[in-house]
Structure formats: C-alpha cells, structure tokens
C-alpha cells in the first residue's frame, strides 16, 4: 500500500480546520492557557498518554500495592477477571467477516447501520427503513466488522491496563498481538478508511455517519502508549502504527465521508473532532491537535450546548439520557486532550456563558432523581457513562458535589473501570 509522509499531515489538517472554523461565527472569550502542557511535557520513563492521565494511573497502582481502598481493589479484581477472559479471545481482523465490501477487498472495513431494518412492505426487504434507538441484530452479525472492532478496542484497553496495574506481562503480550493482527500484519490489517461504514442496504454502500464506529480507537491509542512503555510493542512497531493513523486521519479530513461527518452538528461532529485530535497527537502533530481543540471551542460547544446546559440534538433522541451521557464523554475527552497542549476546555465559556461544565451540571442535577428526566428514554436508565462522567468531573474540578452525586450509582457500577482511571475521588 502506498504510504503518505507524516510531513503532509499538519498542512492538510490545518487547512481543514480553517475551512471548518469559517462555518462558525460564534463569539467566544479569549482562552486562558491551562497550567500545564501535559503531553508536550511528557517525561521520559512514563507511558505516552493523551486522554488517560499517568498521574492518576500511578496513584491507583500505588494504592493497590498497599490495599488502601476496597473500592479500587474491587474494580481491579473485575478488571483482571475481564483481562483473563480476553486472554482466550480473538484475534480480530476485518478479513474474517463473511461479507465482501463493494471494493472487493476484505481489508476494507464494513458495517451495517444499526438502526435500519428490512422493509416489511417489500419482498426483498429493500430499501431498509429506520427505527431510531432500536438496534437491528444484523448490524452485529459476522457480516459486519463493527462487533470485532468493539471487542478489539475493549480487550486491548482492558489487557493494557491490567498489565500496567498488575505487572503481569501476559496481558500486555496478548494486547500487542491483537494490535498487530488488526493494524500491522499485511495479511490481516485493516485499510485506513471507512468507505463502507454503516451501509444501508438498498440505499447506500457507506456513510460519513459511520466514522463514529472508530471512536473506540481513541482508547487503543492510549493503550499503545502503555504497551510501548511496557516493552511489548517495539519502537518500530509504534512508528508503523503512527503511519497507519496518519493515513487514516488524512482520509478523515480529505474524503467526502469525512467532510460530511465534520459538518454534523450532533455528537457525530464532536466525535469526529476528537478522533482527528487524538490521532494527530499520536502522530506527533500537536498543531493539528490545537486546531481541533479550537474547533470544539468555536463550533461544538456553542452549537451543541444551550444556555441551560442542555444538548437539544441529543434530547430529541429516543434514548435522550443515554445520548446526553454519551456526548458528554466526547466533551470530556476533548477537555483532556486540551490539557495536552495547555488549553483549558474544562472552564472555557462563550460570551453567552456556555461551556462543558454547564452541560455536566445540567445532567448531574438529576442524580438520585432520574424519574424527573422528562425527555424520552426507551428502556431503563443505564448509568454507566453517567457515573463515569461524574467521577471525571470531580477529578477535573475538585468539586465534592460531583462525588456526592456519583455515590447514588456507586453500587450499580461497583466494577467500573473509571474508578481506576480517576481514583482521587475514592481516596479523598
């Protein structure tokens, strides 16, 4: 496959960001630099991380050594249990699917839109029809790469963190093997594009909306940092992975699907920005990271959050609480990435007083009273992401009120990985 020099990446990303920023005319306060450039000041002898925080991971690891927190120990045991199971699973590859993408190459990723179903009014079932919030089992079948990608991302991050906390190299070795099969081995590697993601039978072979499928690659990037630190991925392998993500990022900013997704005003647009940001940072392009953080400030925050802290695009969904939590995760990831280059997204506000914290507080106010959530939520309330967001907010702002609100859901999320990633809340 023809490779593209990483030298081209900054120029292309900056051009894309400028074009994107011109679409927004929202006024904003001039930002105040955060106190530290966490990624730019990365220390030798530490894993290179972007969203995960090495200081937090060290606190957790040291605490586990002295068994000072039963809460952390419970989550750690659950993590090791998942890691032991992951040792027996995989490998995963796009070439293992039973379908053949329109390109004729199984190396191209393919997935089926989850909320689209066979048409009951036609003999062939085509064209598919939409049922928002109702997942078609076909989207999880062996014909699609979406489930294997999810398993890959979850298992790699589980194994990497389990190895870091326990010093058991079996986990890191397995995680590295999974990465090699999906990204590096020429026989099984995924081509760096999503031309055929979230296809709708009878309508389209792929959509820009499918780019959200690879959001789980965000946790793989930080996992690579840990695996390199643990000596299970060589310097050459890490550089080859950087090349893969460079090419994928170039596809994101130059393809029609990428341009389409960039224009989305709901969670898809935000998750596009965060992906471009972290993949650029992984490729050592911090100028592009800054450009995407600026996009979040100029467009995503004022375009997505209203003066009440609501996210109207998500409140229209049939699972409004879920999508509010889900989208907040993207904003929190963006804020962590901002820290990498000294940008304080946590406290950023537009002149109209809109910011990430306002959105966190809006949903947090329903803690302990989810029955008062007046927007549509089909099925039961899943508090996993909500709980994680509250722990992250307490970690970022040091506000004990977030800790109090999280306590309502501690028992239901006793094995939450977030406790290990944001331990200060539990150790205060």
Key terms:
single chain, 428 residues, mainly alpha, Glycosyltransferase, two-stranded parallel sheet, two-stranded antiparallel ribbon, 17 helices, 4 strands
What does this protein look like?
With 428 residues, the protein is an all-alpha fold. The chain has one domain (8-427): Glycosyltransferase, CATH 1.50.10.100. It is built from 17 helices and four strands. It has helices at 8-21, 54-66, 70-86, 146-166, 169-184, 217-229, 235-254, 256-262, 267-282, 286-304, 312-315, 320-340, 356-364, 384-397, 400-407, 418-421, 424-427, and strands spanning 110-112, 116-117, 129-130, 196-199. It has a two-stranded parallel ribbon with strand order 1-4. Helix 4 runs antiparallel to helix 5 (169-184), helix 4 (146-166) runs parallel beside helix 6 and helix 14 runs antiparallel to helix 15. The longest helix is centred in the middle third of the chain and has 21 residues, at 146-166. It starts with 7 loop residues before the first helix and ends with a helix.
């Amino acid at each position: 496959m023809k490779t593209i020099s990483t030298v081209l990446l900054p120029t292309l990303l900056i051009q894309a960001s400028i074009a994107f920023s011109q679409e927004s005319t929202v006024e904003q306060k001039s930002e105040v630099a955060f106190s530290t450039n966490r990624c730019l000041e990365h220390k030798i002898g530490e894993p290179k991380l972007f969203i995960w925080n090495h200081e937090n991971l060290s606190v957790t690891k040291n605490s586990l050594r002295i068994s000072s927190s039963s809460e952390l120990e419970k989550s750690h045991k659950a993590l090791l249990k998942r890691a032991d199971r992951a040792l027996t699973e995989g490998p995963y590859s796009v070439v293992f699917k039973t379908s053949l993408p329109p390109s004729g190459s199984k190396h191209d990723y393919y997935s089926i839109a989850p909320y689209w179903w066979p048409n009951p009014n036609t003999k062939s079932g085509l064209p598919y029809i939409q049922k928002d919030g109702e997942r078609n089992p076909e989207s999880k079948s062996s014909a699609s790469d979406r489930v294997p990608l999810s398993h890959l991302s979850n298992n790699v991050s589980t194994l990497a963190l389990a190895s870091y906390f326990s010093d058991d190299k079996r986990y890191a070795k397995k995680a590295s093997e999974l990465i090699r099969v999906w990204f590096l081995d020429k026989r099984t590697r995924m081509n760096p594009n999503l031309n055929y993601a979230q296809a709708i039978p009878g309508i389209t072979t792929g959509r820009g909306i499918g780019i959200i499928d690879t959001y789980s690659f965000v946790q793989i990037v930080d996992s690579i940092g840990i695996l390199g630190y643990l000596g299970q991925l060589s310097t050459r392998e890490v550089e080859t992975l950087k090349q893969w993500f460079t090419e994928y990022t170039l596809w994101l900013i130059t393809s029609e699907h990428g341009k389409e997704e960039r224009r989305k005003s709901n969670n898809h647009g935000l998750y596009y920005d965060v992906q471009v940001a972290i993949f650029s940072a992984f490729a050592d392009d911090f100028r592009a990271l800054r450009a995407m953080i600026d996009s979040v400030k100029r467009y995503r925050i004022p375009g997505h959050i209203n003066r009440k802290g609501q996210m109207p695009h998500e409140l229209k969904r049939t699972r409004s609480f879920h999508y509010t939590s889900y989208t907040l995760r993207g904003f929190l990831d963006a804020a962590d990435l901002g820290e990498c280059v000294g940008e304080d997204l946590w406290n950023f506000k537009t002149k109209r007083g809109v910011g990430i914290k306002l959105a966190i507080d809006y949903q947090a106010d329903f803690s302990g009273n989810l029955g008062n959530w007046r927007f549509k939520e089909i099925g039961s309330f899943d508090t996993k992401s909500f709980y994680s967001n509250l722990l992250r907010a307490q970690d970022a702002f040091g506000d004990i009120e977030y800790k109090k609100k999280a306590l309502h859901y501690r028992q239901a999320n006793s094995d939450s990985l977030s406790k290990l990633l944001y331990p200060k809340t539990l150790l205060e």
